[in-house]
Amino acid sequence: MLLDTEGKPLSERQRIVTPKIPTPAAVLKKLDELRRMLGKFDRVSVGFPGIVKHGKTYGAFNLHPRWAGGFPLQAELEKLWRKPVRVCNDAAVQGYGAIKGVGVELTLTLGTGLGGSLFTDGRLCPGLELGHHPWRVKGMTYEDYLGRRGLDRFGKKRWNKLLKEAIDQTEKLFNWDHLYIGGGNAKKIDFDPGKNITIVPNETGLLGGVKLWQDPR
After folding, report:
1. How many other C-beta atoms lie within 10 A of the C-beta of residue 17?
2. Which residue of 79, 82, 143, 205 has the fewest C-beta atoms within 10 A of its own C-beta?
């Protein structure tokens, strides 16, 4: 999506199917197809579903092993498009688009896996991988229960009960002032989330891209 400097949409949201074997080369090719759909731009924000440090990827559990070890995604996109690029974890980008910048704020993204981002007074705590933290049963993680695998395995009713438990657990762990829940499977929530919890649309992950350029690095 093209955005203006305030984060307001200038184009429709564009989508393209993830490659069947999502290696870096295959994904870069698809990203370039998306770029051609959007027209002129002067900088790029990328939300990546995995660990990102200084523009390099250190693992994408739901993509491909070749994303591990420090793949220079930011540098590769800058070379490909000849524009400034910033790459950040996708849940963090969604968090940037959702948060108010006051107190402790946590974002959970319910999709193929489980993304999470933590902010204090609007500043990101980088490197959080809550989805892969052990939970409930030895050898299982939050993602095993609340990602797509968990939804398929336990069914919608049980998945919602587990999500309630996870919300309670994260409140005790982080003492957050506000929780934001997004991602494609947020629409499957069938209970009232309660006080200080907001369900945010997928587009929030796009609108948060502008804030990558406002947060000093």
Report:
1. 6
2. 82
Q: At 51, which CATH number?
A: 3.30.420.40
Among residues 34, 62, 90, the one where a domain terminates is 90
For residue 162, give the 3-state DSSP assignment.
helix
User: Own/partner pairs for 61-64, CB < 8 Å, 24+ apart?
Assistant: 61/113, 61/132, 61/143, 62/112, 62/113, 63/18, 63/22, 63/27, 64/21, 64/22, 64/23, 64/24
pLDDT band, residue 114 (cuts 50/70/90) = very high
Predicted structure pTM score: 0.86
3 state SS of 128: coil
Domain limits for position 72? 24-90
- Please tell me whether residues 110 and 195 are part of one structural domain: yes
216 exposure class (CB count in 10 Å sphere: 0-12, 13-18, 19+): exposed
pLDDT of residue 194: 87
Q: What is the pLDDT of residues 65-83, one digit of tens each?
A: 999 999 999 999 999 999 9
Q: Which of these, 193, 89, 95, lies nearest to 132 by C-alpha position?
A: 89
pLDDT tens digit sequence for 188-216: 999 999 889 999 987 787 778 888 887 65
Check whether residue 176 and residue 137 sit in a common domain.
Answer: yes
CA gap 142, 151 in Å, rounded: 12
Total domain count, the chain: 2
